[in-house]
Amino acid sequence: MHTLFKAALILMLLAAIFSLGQALFYMMTERPDSNPKRMAWALTRRIGFSLGVFLLVIIGILTGLLKPHGLGG
Fold first, then answer.
1. Where are the transmembrane segments (predicted)?
2. Angstrom distance (rounded) from CA 42 to CA 39
3. Where do the structural domains in the chain lie, given as residue ranges?
4. Can you say whether residue 67 is alpha, beta or left, with left for phi > 0 and alpha for psi between -120 and 50 degrees?
């Protein structure tokens, strides 16, 4: 269960990064007179994936699947 949860978390994080890359590509390649819906949709998906990652981290900590640790000292 731990491995499956962590794999889902990593996949959602990679999807958010990929979607951010898509938005950058659309921003750089589309002409100014075209409709920027593809870039906006890619950024919207990134926000959704990022919220999903945040919720999975919270759920993981609350259920004990993820264990946070302190920084040094």
1. 47-66
2. 5
3. 2-63
4. beta
